[in-house]
Design a protein that fits this description.
The chain has 256 residues and is an alpha+beta fold. The chain is built from nine helices and nine strands. The radius of gyration is 22 Å and the shape is globular. Belongs to the thymidylate synthase ThyX family.
């Protein structure tokens, strides 16, 4: 991760009290709260055949539990995977959230508002590992490493643009312009934050589309920045529901 605080190229462009721009090449994902474990899947699935069971009864035979979860995943009996909840705090560039919000079924979002608070100057710049060159046609794109010259051009262009746009934003605020109007000058590389709540079934659908994994039955080619978010979410979810996560991978990373 990088986080740099370079000086403005032209200090006269900024308000004396304006915070300095900061640049990040990573994302933040935190599990805020959860009610999610493999037993939730078992409770929901077995009520149709055995009625209500205690947690002790469900835990008597771990291999049977693993087998049931694998059966449900394999045959795509999806509703038992919905009886749980996870809330994540996510900080990422705005363009990542625009892709994220395409996922609507089983998701709830609350995002930071540029109408009600002054937005902070935290901006995204790709790391040196981020592939910069795109070749091919829609549906057949391939990405390749950029040259040092391309990386330098990207970094300089983004930093200059971010500094200028945030300076103009501050100028409008200082002139008394409403935050909801002034924010229009800010770019999609600005970091925003949100709470995102989902269940395991909706998360699996998200992961199937927003990660690239050789175990997937259906190939996916996500933009790297949203994949960075998805990878962190998956790691946290795997710790909560290891049997469900294992079955998801075993059966081709397809949401049931």
């Amino acid at each position: 991760m990088i986080e740099r605080k370079p000086p403005l190229t032209d200090q006269t462009d900024a308000s004396p009290d304006a915070p300095e721009p900061r640049f990040r090449d990573d994302v933040t994902v935190e599990l805020v709260r959860s009610s999610a474990e493999d037993a939730d899947v078992l409770f929901a699935a077995r009520v149709s055949t055995a009625g209500e069971q205690s947690l002790e009864e469900l835990q008597k035979d771990p291999e049977r539990s693993r087998g049931l979860i694998n059966f449900l995943m394999r045959d795509r009996h999806g509703t038992p995977f919905e009886h749980n909840s996870m809330t994540f705090f996510i900080s990422a560039p705005i363009f990542v959230f625009r892709e994220f919000h395409r996922h609507r079924a089983g998701w709830s979002y609350n995002e930071e508002s540029g109408r009600y608070r002054e937005l902070q100057p935290v901006f995204y710049i790709p790391s040196a590992e981020r592939k910069l060159v795109q070749r091919g046609r829609p549906g057949k794109y391939e990405f390749f490493e950029g040259t040092p010259e391309q990386q330098k051009a990207v970094t300089e262009a983004m930093e200059d643009s971010y500094r200028q746009s945030y300076a103009r934003y501050q100028e409008m605020l200082d002139a008394g312009v409403a935050r909801e109007v002034a924010r229009a000058v800010l770019p999609v590389g600005l970091f925003s934050s949100m709470y995102a709540t989902c269940n395991a079934r909706s998360l699996m659908h998200f992961l199937s589309l927003r990660t690239k994994d050789e175990r997937a039955k259906v190939p996916s080619f996500p933009q790297r920045e949203i994949e960075m978010v998805a990878e962190k979410m998956e790691q946290l979810w795997a710790g909560l529901m290891p049997l469900t996560h294992e079955a998801f991978n075993t059966h081709g990373r397809v949401a049931p």
